Amino acid sequence: MNDFAIVGAGVIGMMLARELAQADATVALIDKGECARESSWAGGGIVSPLYPWRYSTPVTQLATWSQSSYLHLSQDLLEETGLDPELRQRGMYMVAVDDEEDALQWAQQHHRPMMRVDAQHLYNREPNFAPGHTSALWMPEVSSIRNPRLGAALKQSVVLNPNITVHEHSEVTGLLSDGQRVLGVKTPRVEIKAAHTIVTSGAWTGELLKRFDVSLPVEPVKGQMMVFNAPVGLVNRVVLMGGRYVIPRNDGRILVGSTLEYEGFDKQTTDVAFTSLRDTAIGIIPELANYDVEHHWAGLRPGSPEGIPFIGEVPEWQGLSVNAGHFRNGLVLAPASTRLHADLLLGRDPVIDPQPYQLAGRMN
Fold first, then answer.
1. Parallel/antiparallel/unpaired status of strands 135-139 and 92-95
2. CB under 8 Å to 183, separation ≥6 — which residues?
3. Of 303, 326, 355, which residue constitutes the final position of a domain?
4. C-alpha span between 204 and 186 (Å, rounded)
5. H runs (alpha helix) in 111-146
6. Are residues 270 and 165 in the same domain?
7. Does 309 share its domain with 342?
8. What's the CATH number where 30 sits?
9. Domains in the chain: how many in total?
10. Which residue in 52, 56, 144, 238 could disulfide with 92, CB within 3.0 to 4.6 Å?
11. DSSP result, 184-205
């Protein structure tokens, strides 16, 4: 029997498996598809909430802890696997922000580096940015990470770990239970027994739990993005304007995102979104009109009330817990969410107060 079975091998599931395995626990990591191929792959990789001052304190607490840990995580993964997640510590500009004063007050209250800068500061660093702006908000410590490569590095890390067994293409069809105690999961090929089962299935978490008469308000929210094949240096850092953003990669590619659509589990891209995203990109960086869109895709975020994730035990069930509902900030909040959850599962002092993320009182 495994100590833990984790259902869902995205960034959350794989980071949690690593945390538990590093404490010498045995872990079965199960996914209906391949590791890190859903929202973990589809997102942009900004290691900060967009407009972070507009989020509640529980999200800020997780984000602050996570942001400081990514440097060490990316270095550890590179040493373990030889795969570079491409963490870029270049900062983020936010332009044409209506509530600048709220932002600056938030930054002062939470001791986050943020300042209002003039046009010279902005255009010296981003000379290809759309002309005519006189100021911006600047967060110098914001990073971005190339999330498909982060997913690949995490997958290699868990595959190499002798305490973790990875089961890809293994859809969970039921729980093994004795009364209200969960003893593991059923898949079409095998039963996987564990002392504790954790659901980290992203946008599919609510649907999975419904099968077991558990109602959790996690729903899919589609986001469409695209990437331009552009030269290195056209954009140097994350730029956010009008609720959308451009993100440069080390090889010059530039991501633009994203839409916010409540259309169930539909992951189809649309011509309307293609045009809107391309117009957004050119509105931020006019020179992008001269470069091709290389790829346009969609993913499903795990929407939740106020974007506060659910982390902890499922009421009325023993041996069953959840780590899901991170909405637009799964990658941002993942290190803190999984460390906190590992602390709870292993009986350690939690790094963050767990109360705001508990399921009791927040379920439908």
1. antiparallel
2. 175, 176, 177, 193, 194, 319
3. 303
4. 17
5. 119-125
6. no
7. yes
8. 3.50.50.60
9. 2
10. 238
11. EEE-SS-EEEEEEEEE--GGGH
Distance CA 169, CA 31 (A): 6
Residues 6+ apart with CB under 8 A from 272: none
| 202 Cβ contact partners less than 8 Å away, ≥ 6 residues apart | 8, 10, 12, 38, 39, 40, 300, 301, 302, 324, 330
Task: Please tell me the pTM assigned to this model.
Answer: 0.96
Are 294 and 235 members of one domain?
yes
Q: How many residues does the chain have?
A: 364
For residues 181 and 81, give the distance between their C-alpha atoms in angstroms, rounded to a whole number.
Answer: 37
Phi-psi region of 307 (alpha: psi -120 to 50; beta: other; left: phi over 0): left
| Secondary structure of residue 54 in the 3-state scheme | helix
Q: Are residues 4 and 107 in the same domain?
A: no
Residues 183 and 259 in one domain: no
Distance from C-alpha of 306 to C-alpha of 56, rounded to nearest angstrom: 8
Q: Report the CATH number at residue 271.
A: 3.30.9.10
pLDDT per residue of the chain (364 residues) written in tens, 0 to 9: 899 999 999 999 999 999 999 999 999 999 999 999 999 999 999 999 999 999 999 999 999 999 989 999 999 999 999 999 999 999 999 999 999 999 999 999 999 999 999 999 999 999 999 999 999 999 999 999 999 999 999 999 999 999 999 999 999 999 999 999 999 999 999 999 999 999 999 999 999 999 888 999 999 999 999 999 999 999 999 999 999 999 999 999 999 999 999 999 999 999 999 999 999 999 999 999 999 999 999 999 999 999 999 999 999 999 999 999 999 999 999 999 999 999 999 999 999 999 999 999 888 7
Token output for 45: 């990789």
Helix (H) or strand (E) holding 205: helix 205-210
Q: Which domain holds residue 120?
A: 92-140+219-303
Query: Are 154 and 190 members of one domain?
Result: yes
13 and 121 together in one domain: no
- Distant-in-sequence, close-in-space partners of 100: CB < 8 Å, separation ≥ 6: 116, 137
Q: How far apart are CA 304 and CA 307, in angstroms?
A: 5
C-alpha triplet 2, 3, 4: angle, nearest 5°: 90
Do 35 and 158 fall into the same domain? yes
